[in-house]
Amino acid sequence: MKRILLLAAALLGCATAFAQTMKVVQGAVTTLVPAATASDILFAPGGEQFTVNGLTFSTASVSEILFDRSEVKPATLSVSYSNDEAAVSVSADVAAKLQVTVRGAHVAVLADPSLAEEVTYTLSGSSRAGSFWMDGEYKSTLVFNSLELTNPDSAAVCIENGKRIKVVLTEGTSNSLADAAGGPQKACFFINGHAEFSGAGNLYLAGRTKHAYASDEYTQLKAGLGFICVSEAASDGFHIEQYFQMDGGTVEVSGTQGDCIDVSVTKDPLDEFNGQAFLNGGELKMYVSADDVKGLKTDSALTFSGGTVYAEVAGLGTKGFSVGTDLLIQQPTATPTVLSMDVKGTTYMPGDPALESKCRGMKIKGNYTFDGGSISMNVTGKKAKGISCDGTYTYKSGSTNVLPE
Amino acid sequence: MKKFYLFFLFLGLSLCSFAQSYDYLTLRTADGTEKSLSVDGLRITFSDGKLLARNGKEEAQVALADMACMFFATTPTAIESLAAADADGLRVQIRGGRLVTNAPAGSEIQVYTLDGRRAPQQGLGNGAYLVRVNGRTFKVLAR
């Protein structure tokens, strides 16, 4: 079997070695035309233009055409940042439908509404004055491949496309996004649609204007995801609308002035799982240090079915979990459900009838059902409590250890 | 096991279609002149109304107004056109279906169709032919 796989790999390698690519360079944007699919490159009378694969180039705008033996993956656009510049390469099959604008290290891509195939956008390199903005009407994949991007003016990465956006952290890479205070952006990393994170890389986020990460629809963290760290946020670490689902990976949120993770309902009440959160696997660490904020806050229900959650609930009036309706903690599979919290905070604005807020490990506005897993809390804050439930508490299974009792 | 052989047969056939080695880029001018350059390290620029192609070993320069097309090729071609300047003054034409040339007597002359079949030197129908004169190839149109 091993021999067969090696032979297959060798055959594919040979095919790659034969690949020839024509690279049409126009300023910061290079169009990649694979020789294997290239039509005749036809010159218009007078030679002011030439056309290949349906793409027309003005010879006056082409700085050079290069040829090499690299391979072109179809439906791809890659951005390589280097200090104050960005170089964009786009495969010829989608180039006509992607309007690319490059200003310094700020890159904007507008996909034509007629685009009907998924484009993979790969970002790499480093810039302290750069950004990536994209809009379109078809689902897309966004790959972070050793990207270090800071935008002092607005979001570092802003995806206005409202469809499904796969965010892939390339395995073994470290990626970081940051913005600066005083910008107009909702988040340092914003996705207008629904986001699905995967890939065993690392992502570090710092949101200095508002949120570190925000999505206007659901966000899922897939099994096998690497590490996402929010080190600071002027508001929430993650600000997610519709629902949040964590199936894997490690997420660490600290240094937020708002909630670590805020899950809000969308404007459409019919949206699926609106305002809910599902913790099915992975490891979530939250350091809740600002006053009167929450670790994981949901407008609606929270279902914790697997994985490990740790929260240091230290700010005045803070909550580890703040659940808008019902909380279900269970362990339906072999994946352990483990919750531990250090509840250290005291009361926020004590005596103020409108603003007083007490520190709680978990604050549940609806019913609380415990059906498996383990909960341990160390409550040391003055007047703090481990669990506060406004509705009905139902115990079915699992172990709870809240100290002091 | 049979499945594996079928898989490799499929893989092999698939790769054959992709593994064509387009090692050359051929520049063709409006008069039919063709010049092929290896694509390894090839760089093309446009300036002063000219196309300049260089790969470190050879180069070609063509007036943009004369360019008809470029295409990838698996083999090089160096077809000289009748209209192209010929340092030796060698001329080849097809008039009335008959090959006409000022090549010296005793020259080795062969006529081929574009698909490589040998053709006679007279009774040639309309179309393009490759005419080889003493080792030099011309692309000639019979009208």
- The quaternary state of the protein chains shown equals heterodimer
Major beta sheet summary of chain A = 16 strands, parallel, barrel
Beta-strand residue percentage of chain B: 35-45%
Instruction: Tell me what portion of residues of chain A adopts beta-strand conformation.
Output: over 45%
Q: Which chains make the largest contact?
A: A-B, 33 and 32 residues
Distance between the termini of chain B: 59 Å
Strand order of the main beta sheet of chain A, please? 13-15-18-21-24-27-30-33-36-34-31-28-25-22-19-16
The whole-number mean of residue pLDDT values of chain A reads: 94
DSSP helical segment count of chain B = 1
The span between the termini of chain A is 59 Å
Class of the largest domain in chain B, according to the CATH hierarchy?
Mainly Beta
Number of helices of chain A: 2
The count of β-strands of chain A is 38
- Estimate the global geometry of chain B from the Cα principal axes: elongated
Indicate the mean pLDDT of chain B. 78
Overall tally of domains of chain B = 2
Shape of chain A from CA axes?
elongated
Give me a quick take on this structure.
The complex is a heterodimer of chains A (about 400) and B (about 140). Chain A is mainly beta.
Report on this model:
- The complex is a heterodimer of chains A (405) and B (143).
- With 405 residues, chain A is mainly β.
- Chain A is built from two helices and 38 strands.
- A 16-stranded parallel barrel of chain A has the order 13-15-18-21-24-27-30-33-36-34-31-28-25-22-19-16. In chain A, strands 9-10-12-14-17-20-23-26-29-32-35-37 form a twelve-stranded mixed beta sheet, with no helix packed on it. A three-stranded antiparallel beta sheet of chain A has the order 3-4-5, with no helix packed on it.
- Chain A is elongated.
- The N and C termini of chain A lie far apart (59 Å).
- Chain B has 143 residues and is mainly beta.
- Chain B has two domains: 72 residues, SH3 type barrels; 62 residues, Immunoglobulin-like (Sandwich), CATH 2.60.40.
- The longest helix of chain B has 17 residues.
- Chain B is elongated and about 45 Å long.
- Chain B starts with a helix and ends with a strand.
- In chain B, 24% of the residues are buried.
- β3 of chain A pairs antiparallel with β6 of chain B, so a sheet runs across the interface.
